[in-house]
Amino acid sequence: MNVEIEERTLAEARYIRETEETIRKTAKVFGLSKSTVHNDLSKRLKSVDGEMYADVKKILDKNFSEKHIRGGYSTKKKYENDSREKG
Description:
It is built from 5 helices and no strands. By secondary structure, it is mainly α. The N and C termini lie far apart (57 Å).
């Protein structure tokens, strides 16, 4: 694997492990696509650092299981803001 890709993958993994952020937020911070970050963390990281992969996988699984809650909260905020502007 290319050294730059390996270093990028480890940097993304460290960021996720420290902040417990989502793939979307991580992609934004690193200026990458969500697909690239997902591939780095779900495929490449396993061969680079298995222990870190296990830590990151737990965080990503937790984020995935909470996705519907975040979406609902975001929609609620949107409609609350819309009603304030109209009222």
